[in-house]
Amino acid sequence: MELTYNQRDFSRVSDMKMDDVPLKVKLILYIGFTVLIVMAATTAIIISTTTSQHEDLAYKKSIEKASNYANQFNSDMQSNMAIARTIASTLTVYNSSDREEVNAFLREILIDNPNLIGTYTAFEPNKFDGRDAEFVNVPPDQDSTGRFVPYWNKIGGTMFVEPLLEYETLDYYQLPKELEEEVLTEPYLYQGELIASYVVPIMRDGEFVGIGGVDVSLNYIDEIVSNVTAFETGYAFTTSNTGILLSHPVHKEWIGSKTLDDFDDPEIARMADDILVGKGGHIETIDPSTGEDAIIFYEPVRTGNYSFILVIPKEDMLADVTALRNELILISSLALIFMAGAAYLVAMSITRPINEIVSNFAYISNSALKGDLKRRAETDVEVDFRKIPSGLNDILDSLQTYSDELEEANEELKSLDQMKDAFLSNVSHELRTPLTSIKGYTQNVYDGTLGDINDQQKISLGTVLRNSDRLRRLVDSLLYVSQAQAEIIEYNFRECQLTEIMNNTVMDTVMLIEANDLHLEKKIPSEFPSIVADKIRLTDMLNNLIDNAIKFTPAGGVITLGAYEEEKHLHITVSDNGIGIPEDLIPNLFSKFYQIDSSIRRKYGGTGLGLYICKEIVDAHSGEIWIESQPHHGTTVHVRLPK
What we know:
- By secondary structure, this protein is of the alpha+beta class.
- It has helices at residues 2-20, 23-92, 99-112, 171-179, 219-225, 266-276, 314-317, 319-369, 387-447, 455-486, 498-515, 535-551, 598-604, 610-620, and strands spanning 116-123, 150-153, 160-163, 183-184, 188-190, 193-204, 207-217, 235-240, 281-286, 293-301, 306-313, 494-497, 519-523, 530-533, 558-565, 569-576, 624-629, 635-642.
């Protein structure tokens, strides 16, 4: 009958718990959310990795396209420079001094290379054949001095020769002379053509005698670049190394007249700086032609100090990446929905046995919380979960045994603790009376009240008095701790003068300070606000702090007692120049019976109660106490009390 009653009781408790806590719903949510989080995190990583790879691929594809065109134009420039070198090297070793023959040579090169718009040479006075005087004002390939300066060109479509103009003034003719190096000019407009000149010095026996070179129309670059496309709406253009536009698919009026700096865009300006020093890269900015967000790739054409620039709308470039991301998100969402459904089914399949076990546990825990450890879990559950209630019953058996043993031990400890507290309190009280008598009679003898004594006797009696005070403080400390343990300490808070307390403390400890060959300095204001405090307890606290300072300061040292006023507090400091304390040990100093190590206890004595009592007294006054110290540099104890 008892078993049947327990089963009914268990059933009622179980039903009540199910009403209060919907375990089924919580379990489904836990499993569902866990699966969702894992799937969402995995999906996010897959989407991020995949789209990042496709984005990197789009960037690489754009960079490769820009690089290929840059290399193509670089090859063209190298070919043009090679022709200029051929003209210069041929005329360097040419000895026939036949102006007609050289003209034919230049004309033939211009015919054989359709990409050229002009070929030329120019010699210093009398450096070609020494006959300049014979050709003064003789057209078409001599200047007014008769120098040989033929310029073959087909500007306008017809091939003809004329004297090379402004040879003496233009940099791209004079720089090869000054530098004795090849020069590739900046693009310039000449008779409606955007031209670049390749100029090579002619050197004979280490002496500059003239130049040879070719002119190339850059219009073909615009024709090629204007037809370059990238993705759906990307386009390309080229610039010189100083940022002059050499081509543009839409704004033809910009060619040769507009520079990158004219766009007044910080990112484009940074690109212009890179182009100037022959660097490639890419920037993200607003396309000055369309006003759309764009990614601009630029690659140097190193031979010509030009740069090929590819402008791709960001949305256009990343369209495939966006489409891929959307597809992955859709697939992942469907997978998440499927996994959530699967989680629901799994949760439903294990809800019933878990509900039974949890309800059983709740029943047992309620009994245990009421102190009844005799209840046991129902073991008639499904085989997969049978070890759980069996294990719980084993734990309960062990807990019952330990509980019985702990209860017995606790009773013994309570008895011992009460005996200890009573012993400490009784011993402290019993010791105070004889100590008071010992000190009183010793003081009478020391003062000469009971007769004259010699100096040696007085020194000995002084030692007895000091140790009596020390023993009294030890007894007071033990009594304080026992009273604190019993929570029976009473404080007598009254208005009092802190300067008076501090001066009295100095008088109480002056003999001990002198006996230890120490010097005491006072930094106490003559006038100080009064505070509400327990005068006796504060005196005990200061005595403990000064006693500690005396104990850990070697002979000849200085102890400083200071005080100053703050806005809302009175601040007391007790400093010494003694042995100091390692920083990592300072937090332990206010613990009861704490000593830094056993050697400290043996060398300096003490119970480890002084600072503990000081903190208890400061806390009772709603104050603060802390220590600053360094080994071998002394210690300062700070006490801050509210006004």
